[in-house]
Amino acid sequence: MLGLDIMARSISETAIADKFGNVWQYHSQSDRHSKIACWAIMFDLLKHCPLLRQHVVAGKVGFGINHEMRDFQTSRKKVLDLVVCTPRKAGDARLNKTFSQLAEECGIHLTPAEQADLDDLPEVPVVAVGNVNIALEAKATMTAHIKALPRLHDELDSSHQTIHGDTDAAIAAALVTINASGEFLSTSNNKHSISEQPAKWNVEPQPKAADRTVAKVREIRRRSKPGDQGFDAVGIVLVDFRNDGSPCTIWTKPPAPTSSDGDNYANMIGRIATLYASKFAAF
Question: Is the pTM value of this prediction over 0.85?
Answer without folding.
Answer: yes
